[in-house]
From TrEMBL:
It holds the Pfam family NTP_transf_2. It comes from Flavobacterium enshiense DK69. Gene3D superfamilies: Beta Polymerase, domain 2. The keyword Transferase applies. One of its GO terms (molecular function) is nucleotidyltransferase activity. InterPro entries: NT_sf (IPR043519), Polymerase_NTP_transf_dom (IPR002934). Residues 88-138 form the Polymerase nucleotidyl transferase domain. This is Nucleotidyltransferase. It comes from the Bacteria. Keywords: Transferase. CDD domains: NT_KNTase_like.
């Protein structure tokens, strides 16, 4: 039930999919296999088709919601490309991509533009601090078009949490800057093939951006020995701030939702990953109860 798992997953977001989209999130070798499964699900009245979209249950309004969300994508992507080009100019940034709802072709008044940033090793927290200061000072801390909540370095490209949520985020990630770094990133995360089959090839027009003289100069200075402990310092003060701010968060949740290692920085205080997986497993249980078809539960 590869197609069914995909449809149930996206139904959490009230995001119905087209046939070609469903197929991309399966391990089926040919789209005819996906079509056969979809035909069976429609015959059993588990799915319904509205225009080009396949809807689980009775949430027919989700099609209208998606169509409205699609309208904002073109403008948001234009902004995202400009922002990504700007972010890539910052010291030690190796690559910039788009994740979140925009990477899935959806953007409405409640959406943010979520950026995924790859940095040089042992300079991640310096990079993060520069970008956060820019957001606070020049954007008045607005995150609508400048939400950067996930950093990794080229030293640690493999995503440690391997589940349907993270696999989907990697699958839908849109690289905008840093082709070489993204090629290495996808090679390090080929485990997602177990969920969705082979990933689409990286677009040829993703550039490896060049740094302006100012950024190169800052990089040169911050590589000097007296600055060697600066990255660790920024990490320590950030983690201290987060531990104070989110003191009621269970330790095991904090370690994943706000992961703060030398080469990884996540800022997901709502722990959305866990919420999605729990919601998906609940859908699996409801589906089993209603249709007597059991689906193995996912892990967060």
């Amino acid at each position: 039930m590869e197609a069914l798992k995909t449809i149930l997953y996206f139904s959490i977001f009230r995001h119905p999919l087209k046939m070609e989209e469903i197929h991309k999130y399966t391990t089926h070798a040919d789209i005819s296999e996906t079509l056969k499964e979809i035909d069976y699900l429609i015959e059993e009245k588990i799915l319904s088709k509205v225009d080009e979209f396949y809807v689980y249950g009775s949430d027919l309004d989700s099609v209208t919601k998606r169509l409205k969300g699609n309208l904002g994508v073109k403008k948001a992507m234009t902004i995202a490309k400009k922002k990504a080009h700007f972010i890539a100019k910052f010291p030690f940034v190796k690559a910039v991509g788009i994740s979140g709802s925009l990477s899935k072709g959806y953007f409405d008044e409640d959406s943010d533009i979520d950026f995924f940033v790859i940095t040089e090793p042992d300079r991640l927290w310096i990079t993060r601090t520069f970008l956060m200061l820019y957001k606070k000072i020049f954007l008045l801390n607005s995150r609508k078009y400048f939400c950067i909540n996930y950093f990794i370095s080229t030293q640690n490209l493999e995503i440690e949490e391997k589940n349907r949520f993270t696999a989907t985020e990697i699958k839908t990630l849109i690289p905008l800057q840093g082709k070489s770094a993204f090629e290495a990133f996808y090679k390090s995360n080929n485990w997602i093939d177990n969920y969705f089959g082979e990933r689409d090839p990286l677009q040829k027009d993703v550039p490896d951006s060049t740094k302006p003289i100012v950024s190169k100069g800052i990089e040169t200075i911050l590589r000097l020995k007296p600055c060697s402990s600066l990255d660790s310092f920024f990490r320590k003060i950030t983690v201290l701030k987060w531990k104070t701010k989110f003191k009621d968060m269970p330790r095991e949740d904090f370690q994943i939702a706000l992961k703060s290692t030398r080469n990884i920085s996540k800022h997901h205080p709502s722990y959305f990953q866990k919420k999605v997986i729990l919601a998906l497993n609940e859908k699996y249980r409801e589906f089993h109860k209603q249709y007597n078809i059991e689906l193995p539960e996912e892990h967060a």
